[in-house]
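During the no-cost extension, the postdoctoral fellow (Dr. R.K.) reprocessed legacy sequence entries with the updated structure-token encoder. One reprocessed record is reproduced below for audit purposes.
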Amino acid sequence: MNPTLAFILITLVIDAMGFGLIMPVMPTLLQEVGQVSLADAALVGGVLTTVYAVMQFLCGPVIGSLSDRFGRRPVLLGSLFVLAVDFVILALAQVLWLLFLGRIVAGVASATQSTATAVIADISKPEEKAARFGLVGAAFGLGFVLGPMIGGLLAEYGTRAPFWAAAGLAAINVVFGYIVMPETVTDRTRRPFRWSRANPLGAFAHVGRNPQIRGLLLIYFFYQIAFFVYPVIWSYFTTARFGWSESTIGLSLAAFGISMALVQGGLIRLILRSFGDGGTVLYGLIFNIGAFLVLAFVTQGWIALIFTPITALGAVVTPALQAILSKRTSDDAQGELQGVLASISALGMILSPLIMSSVFARFAEDGATPYLPGAPFLVSAALMVLCIAIYLPVRRRQIA
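Re-encoded structure tokens follow.
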């Protein structure tokens, strides 16, 4: 494998692991540091997650534009170094405001996902982009599985141990990147940095000037809100509908993460070969409608458990969309584009919990009529229908 591609994928795995490593200890840590109850710790944790997502939304286009101007290498290595230091601060934090500061810094530094994805765009031929963007999803899927698992094991050594592990992983990756990663931005593709294009609104306005690209960005936005239903609702849904234990929920999430990694890391190549980028987007949207409808109405836990890894077959939409957008964006604006996509994902991370949890609460409360804990999946299915309605006219104009 190309050493640069290997470094980028390892970076993305570590980024996902770094988030997952600390998940098992966050409730206990917040109770320790804040001297609060578990219920209050959950509220504080929710605010921390929102702060993290907001910083990603604000900083994704900025980091992407900086990498278009100064190069991917210094931006990526610098951010990884800051992330390593940030995990050390979190490991030592004894007051809540330091935890908030740490999540703010982590949100900024983790916005380098846009830079990492831009590197893949830089080093890939047009026909390779969708499959390689699929590897991005595979890396996140692998990190999603490994992070909480390792974090839970490390928690046996104390609530701070996962933070030290995350700091060590990030530091090692800085050294690896310094050795193997070349600069992928050339004088031909270097673009001046302008704040008017680096802020989220300015970046959206510039990238979305093309009406065909604007439609695809809208699809990407609705898709992110819909697909976030899994991490937002899954634990609550399976508890309410099937009475699953924590271990069964963890098993199902691991199955989903592994399946998503397999689909985006390998199976997507077969789908792309059969349908092309544009056809893969349409296939994924249609498949997701079916998957969401099944989960909305399923009443048997064993069926849901078997079906969970199958739902990952719909995870091909994001890399295929990224490939279409990348092909239609100039070489000197790849970082900007990926920054916009990172901001859209962060916005989905902010909005989806608000929408999906409200719908779940309405239809899963005692005495609800109808009682339907799977109602959030119906919302996601409706969003998929909306995506298809937007996509078909765009595709007819031969955007894909």
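Residues 222 and 383 are 6 Å apart (CA to CA). The mean pLDDT is 82. The remaining legacy entries will be reprocessed before the final report is submitted.
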